[in-house]
Design a protein that fits this description.
This protein is about 25% helix and about 20% strand. It is α+β, with helices and mostly antiparallel strands. The radius of gyration is 14 Å and the shape is globular. The chain starts with a helix and ends in a 9-residue tail after the last strand. The structure holds adenosine monophosphate and zinc ion (ZN). The site of adenosine monophosphate has 13 residues, from loops. The site of adenosine monophosphate (AMP) has 13 residues, from loops.
């Protein structure tokens, strides 16, 4: 998608602080971190929202979860714990319309989700 900021990061057209990469997924530090560890995990394929994941694309979710495990190890927060969030559309607070998972940790997170 030409105007998609995360597609541009995947293609290397916009720089990022890369944390983890494999054939399907790229993970990088969030530019406006909400916790000491705040990583954005994006599939390399452009899928706008969680609602756009087709049944035959469900593997991408598994690959994002595998990436989250790797990111937690790399950031050394796997044992302490962390939170993963996927915002979807307006009420979910989605701003960038390229599917992504937030991985937050490095401090005790609040109990409420919103
Ligand atoms: P969301 O509200 O779920 O769409 O989250 C989008 C996230 O992407 C926000 O936390 C932004 O801070 C983050 N973000 C936007 N642009 C960049 C960028 N160039 N590099 C890293 N993170 C970004
Ligand atoms: Zn995109």
């Amino acid at each position: 998608m030409p105007d998609c900021i995360f597609c541009k990061i995947v293609k290397g057209e916009i720089p990022c602080a890369k944390v983890y990469e494999d054939d399907a997924v790229l993970a990088f530090d969030d530019i406006q971190p909400m916790a000491p560890v705040h990583v954005v995990i994006v599939p390399k394929m452009h899928i706008p929202t969680l609602m756009d994941v087709e049944a035959n694309q469900s593997g991408v979710i598994a690959q994002m979860v595998q990436a989250a495990q790797n990111v937690a190890q790399i950031k050394q927060i796997a044992a302490r714990g962390f939170r993963t969030v996927i915002n979807c559309n307006s009420d979910g607070g989605q701003v960038v319309f390229h599917l992504h998972m937030h991985l937050l940790g490095g401090r005790k997170l609040e109990d409420q989700l919103g």
